[in-house]
Design a protein that fits this description.
two-stranded antiparallel ribbon, 2 strands, mainly alpha, 3% strand
């Protein structure tokens, strides 16, 4: 009787081992789909990050056409005086090199599905290991479902963080353009008052 029970135990071992091996192999195959981050200094994911805020342009691209027959020396003097006046009125001089660049926001990457795939693979492995006896396959399926749900929730949080960072970047870009726009308006008003058509 003891030989028979020992034999039945040995015959059960390969089947349970095969189920565990199959679940582990499936998890390894699915884990191969997850995007791993690159080392320090390199991009975190293989996608495009949101663009950094653009710095204000170095100088105005404005054209002034004399309408009262001003000669070249008069045009140079008017441009210089209007430039100085506009810089003083707006407290912004586009010809000056900024002492510090605008802050650069590195936002999180857009979601790429790695959280969902990783959650499903992890859930399948945990479910297969935690399932009692012969129900390793059922445990793997249930674990994969729960892992997929958790991965989808993480994916949604990542999408929200990405959209928030993109909105902050857009706001920073818009606020960086305000001083230049004010300077252009002041320069145009000054040159227009001196008899130039601004384009």
């Amino acid at each position: 009787m003891s030989d028979l029970s020992r034999l039945s135990r040995l015959s059960r071992l390969p089947r349970e081992g095969l189920q565990l091996l199959a679940a582990g192999s499936a998890a390894l195959l699915l884990a191969g789909c997850v995007v791993a981050p690159v080392g320090p200094g390199g991009p975190r994911y293989a996608h495009r990050a949101p663009p950094p805020p653009a710095a204000a342009p170095a100088g105005p691209t404005m054209y002034f056409y004399p309408e009262r027959g001003q000669d070249a020396a008069r045009q140079d003097r008017d441009r210089y005086e209007c430039y100085r006046w506009a810089a003083h009125e707006t407290s912004f001089d586009p010809g000056m090199t900024p002492t510090s660049a605008p802050p650069r926001m590195a936002g999180p990457p857009p979601p790429n599905g790695a959280n969902v795939i990783g959650g499903a693979a992890t859930g399948a492995v945990i479910g297969a290991i935690a399932a009692p006896g012969r129900s390793a396959g059922e445990g793997a399926v249930i674990g994969a479902i729960f892992g997929t749900l958790l991965g989808a929730a993480a994916e949604q949080n990542q999408q929200y963080a990405y959209e928030s960072a993109a909105a902050r970047n857009a706001q920073m870009q818009a606020s960086a353009r305000v001083p230049m726009d004010d300077f252009r308006r002041a320069m145009s008003a000054c040159m227009g008052g001196r008899g130039y058509r601004v384009n």
